[in-house]
Amino acid sequence: MLDNILLGFSASLAPLNLLYCLIGVTLGTVVGVLPGLGPVSSIALLLPVTYKMDLLSAVIMLSGIYYGVQYGGTITSVLMKIPGEASSVVTCIDGYEMAKKGKAGAALGIAAFGSFIAGTLGIIILMFLAPPLAKLALMMGPPEYMALMIAGLSLVIYLSSKSMIKSLMMGILGLLLGTIGMDPISGQIRFGMGIKNLMDGVDLAPMAMGLFGLAEVFSLIESKEGSSEFLKAKTKLREILPNRKDWRDSFFPITRGSIFGFLMGILPGGGAVMASFVSYAMERRLSKHPDKFGTGAIEGVAGPESSNNSAAIGAFVPLLTLGIPANVVMALLIGAFMIHGVNPGPLLLRDNPVLFWGIITSMYIGNLLLLIQNVPLIGLFVKILKVPSKIMAPLITVICFIGAYSINNNISGILVVIIFGTMGYLMRKFRYDPAPLILAFVLGPLLEDAFRQTMMLFRGDVSKIFERSIAMVFLGVAFFLFISPFITKFFKRNYSKPTFIDDKR
Amino acid sequence: MKKRDLISSLFFLFVGILFLIGSFNYSIWDRYGPGPGFFPLLLGSIFSILSFLLFVVSSFRKENKEDELGESDSMKFSVIHRTIIFLCLLLFFYFLFDQLGFLLTIFIFMIVTLISFSKRPMKLSFSVSIFTTLLTYFVFVKLLGVQLPWGVLEPLLRFY
Question: Do A365 and A18 contact (CB within 8 A), yes or no?
Fold first, then answer.
């Protein structure tokens, strides 16, 4: 193990990788600060840039953005009650109340330190958990993979919005869009409609840029005024470092948040958003003074902020050991691997240990860099918010378009962004969530492959799935997720399903 | 929301049926198992059924308070007219990108968008447009080596 860690550090501490790590975490923090622009659109945007980079450098930079976003999202949540990122929504509740009481520094400080501790703890768990999981993954066959992917998709659909039927429809639509292009088994072109650019299917990056990035731009353009409310916000960063009492109050929330967040991150579909919500609820329930929550309790900042960072690290477990994305960001990271002809999965540890351990150890460095740069630079990030949204909107569009064009050096990339951007905008209006669509789109070809291999293995006899215990456990989870809202509704009339998107958006 | 669910479900039902019919162009089942048409057929069927289900559920549902829409959800022309103009500008970008080249297209797109939507002083709009154009050139072309079309400015490449 020690040899592997040293091997990883020797790769991740190389000057160029160190530089990309710094670029990644800085970009991530900036993206986290900017409302709307999330890790998905920014990673999708930078995916084409990684074509010319070394794979390790590319993944180090992209994952730096991912966990950097969790840090950045906190800043605006605490100072302006504007969550830069969905996983920081909960932080708004007590973080902003703390800021109003002149304790913005303590809130931001505990969030930064808590995130660092949680991130580091997450990496340690990842180091010990990843190798045995990779071995376990080698024992899994197509039926188990198929069942696991169905369970993951079910969780995303379950959590995505209040309407189960709409989420399910988006998931299926994503799978359908995934069938466009060359069939992985027979090589036949499906639904190509004679269009040359559709022979390889729809590109993931322009699609994600459209559905998330451009759709957000449309909303910015539609809104009447830009960021005037940000300009009015007054903030005092009297103290950055939390005092001894703050530390005492935050110790257990950080520890619990770290462990719980990591477990939530591992589950496909779980992710940082859900982890932060559940952590807040858990801290409130365990607190001796639950009435303090909502009025500026530091536990309400420490717990969720630790858990969302830990979950971000946990999401790497299924990616690196099973080759399965736990969330949309991980799906995009798979894209980065594929660009370089490497398949993440159980064989990665055996065939490419430098890459595997390099990615893991780079996270230590990334977390440390984030702590070093975040504490003194908080004031600077606040200034970015003063860029009016009406100026940001065309700027984001240009970056999206150039990014899409550069994928194949083809104008069709821009058209894909426009089409999916318009679709994403309409989906918001009609209250459909794009998250299940994009994750299903990525999982689609993998799921179809596993499904067809399973059917060949079973010679068309579906009932043989009952003989596979692991697969049945995953399918049982999926089934439970689908029926649970109906059961809960039956027993409790006023039940409101936990969701990770704001339906009023 | 009821009306929108009805419209969207009908649209998705149409999409689902298209995939369903299209899947019959490929082999559904062969001696080795499911063919390339099986998965789209299965998904197309489920998608169509779900869309139909949403249509039926929406038809019988009464509008309630929860369905009242805020301005951000509105589809009134007074709310979405900016989006429509912006979409036209995006299409302008798409159609002229190859012909005019990236420098001119980005500059024109930026300045027209800023003048139309931001209502800031002309000087600022001009500076931001120039800045974005130069930023794109230095980051994407010089730093990352991305090949972007020069269009009518192609003769400038002689001095490049």
Answer: yes
- According to DSSP, the residues that pair with B29 across neighbouring strands are B34
| Calpha distance B153→B151 (Å, rounded) | 5
Q: Is residue B74 part of a domain?
A: no
- B60, A210 in Cβ contact below 8 A? no
Nearest-by-CA chain B residue for A461: B33
Are B48 and B101 members of one domain?
no
Secondary structure in 3-state letters for A446-493:
HHHHHHHHHHHHCCCCHHHHHHCHHHHHHHHHHHHHHHHHHHHHHHCC
Q: Could you tell me how many helices (H) and strands (E) chain B has, helices first?
A: 5, 2
B97, B55: one domain = no
Whether residue B121 is contained in a domain is answered as yes
Residue B159 has pLDDT above 70, yes or no: no
The minimal CB distance from B47 to the residues A49, A169, A429 is found for A169
Structure tokens at A99: 């800021």
**A3, burial (CB in 10 Å: exposed 0-12, middle 13-18, buried 19+):** exposed
**Same structural domain for residues B40 and B95?**
no
Same domain, B92 and B31: no
Chain A contact present for B35, CB below 8 A: yes
Q: What is the pLDDT of residues A292-305, one digit of tens each?
A: 887 888 888 999 88
For chain B, how many structural domains are there in total? 2
- Cα–Cα distance, B105 to A420 (Å, whole number): 21
Q: Is the pLDDT of residue B109 over 90?
A: yes
The CA distance from A505 to B73, in Å, is 8
The residue ranges of every structural domain in chain A are 2-489
Residue B62 corresponds to which amino acid? K
Tokens of A305: 């902020």
Which residues of B are less than 8 Å from A191 in CB distance? Answer: 19, 22, 40
A123 CB burial (10 A radius; 0-12, 13-18, 19+): buried
| Preferred mutation among B1, B80, B118, B122 to probe A, highest tally of A CBs within 10 A | B118
Residues 6+ apart with CB under 8 A from A311: A87, A261, A262, A264, A265, A270, A271, A272, A274, A275, A276
Give A59→chain B minimum CA distance, Å.
17
Write down the pTM of the prediction: 0.74
Q: Which distant-in-sequence residues (6+ apart) come within 8 Å of A2 by Cβ?
A: none
Nearest by CB to residue B50, choosing from A172, A402, A432, is A172
CA A380 to chain centre: 25
Per-residue model confidence as pLDDT tens digits over A123-136: 888 888 777 776 77
Question: Which range marks the domain in which residue B34 is found?
Answer: 2-64
Strands B33-34 and B29-30, by their bridges, are antiparallel
For residues B113 and B128, give the distance between their C-alpha atoms in angstroms, rounded to a whole number: 11
Positive or negative, the CA dihedral A436, A442, A446, A449 is positive
Indicate yes or no: CB of B36 within 8 angstroms of CB of A191: no
